[in-house]
Design a protein that fits this description.
Blueprint (H helix, E strand, L loop, with lengths): L2 E7 L4 H14 L3 E7 L14 E6 L1 H11 L6 E5 L11 H6 L5 H4 L1 E5 L2 E7 L2 E8 L2 E6 L6 E7 L2 E8 L1 E5 L7 H4 L11 E7 L9 E4 L4 E5 L5 E6 L3 E6 L2 E7 L4 E5 L5 H9 L11
């Protein structure tokens, strides 16, 4: 009996549509194929069922797809059609060479931690979403300091004064948090990263905390307004009336990765990590 394979991509882009058509034909002898436009998928998720999914796109599209597929526990293979390709490690040409393989056996399955965000207004839940990369609270208007109170397991820790706060997963540690001076966390680690953005102090530094930690963030001040952003794609306005609860999500992000690819290889290839200086030879 054939496994069911979901082929995903932004079908409004001609090159992506070409890939979807091509691989639908190539893989049809081996799988039951369903082709879906990634941005139409949210309206059909209640009907979606598959053993695995292949996405043609970039890192942003992968985050979008990952948030949808996590609760369905559908492993996702990203095929790079974007710019960086940190989460989409394989090219269409490399994928074509694997046609005929049992993908669930051939590719390596990585279970990556995700988080769930709950936005509360007083005692009422107003919004809930998973996040794969990060959750960010930042100022919503003219650039100025925004005070953010932080509680860990209901214990008040500190109030960050700066441009905001990032709560990142290990996957997200190489995204916005990295740009804000945070450490790189190996993707399979079971930990979260709390990173203030441009703190107006010399003694507030990033924290690596256990993934089971219950995090609560609040804006400190009645006149303060901010923006809650999830994976750089979903945003909600927040005020002092809101509380943001963040915790480990019960569904991991299931990624299919090339069998011989490692995290440090991708760091070196994509971000030029640990590249030595160009010394002149004697």
């Amino acid at each position: 009996m054939k496994d069911t394979l979901l082929l995903l991509g932004d079908s409004s882009k001609p090159d992506i549509l070409t890939n979807l058509d091509k691989f639908s034909s190539l893989l049809e002898p081996y799988y039951n194929i369903h082709v879906e436009d990634i941005f139409s998928l949210p309206h059909r998720m209640d009907k979606v069922s598959a053993d695995l999914a292949i996405l043609f796109g970039g890192d942003g599209t992968t985050l979008f797809a990952g948030r949808l597929l996590c609760p369905k526990r559908i492993p996702l293979l990203g095929v790079n059609r974007g710019r960086l390709g940190f989460l989409t490690e394989i090219s269409p040409e490399e994928l074509e060479k694997t046609v005929g393989e049992d993908y669930l056996a051939y590719f390596r399955l990585s279970r990556c931690l995700t988080i769930e965000v709950v936005l509360m207004e007083e005692e009422r839940e107003v919004f809930r979403s998973p996040a794969i990369n990060d959750v960010v609270i930042s100022f919503g208007g003219i650039c100025r300091i925004i005070p953010v109170q932080c509680y860990l397991n209901e214990e008040y820790i500190t109030t960050y004064h700066g441009d905001g706060v990032i709560l990142s997963t290990p996957i997200g540690s190489t995204a916005y948090s990295l740009s804000a001076g945070g450490p790189i966390v190996v993707q399979e680690m079971d930990a979260l990263l709390l990173n203030p953005i441009c703190p107006h102090t010399l003694n507030n530094r990033p924290l690596v905390i256990p993934s089971k930690t219950q995090v609560e963030l609040r804006l400190d001040g009645r006149k303060v307004q901010g923006v809650l952003t999830i994976d750089g794609q979903i945003s909600r306005e927040v005020t002092h009336n809101h509380r943001i609860w963040i915790r480990k999500y019960r569904f991991p992000f299931l990624r299919l990765k090339p069998p011989h690819s490692t995290f440090f290889q991708i760091l070196k290839q994509k971000l030029h990590w640990a590249k030595p200086p160009d010394y002149n030879e004697d």
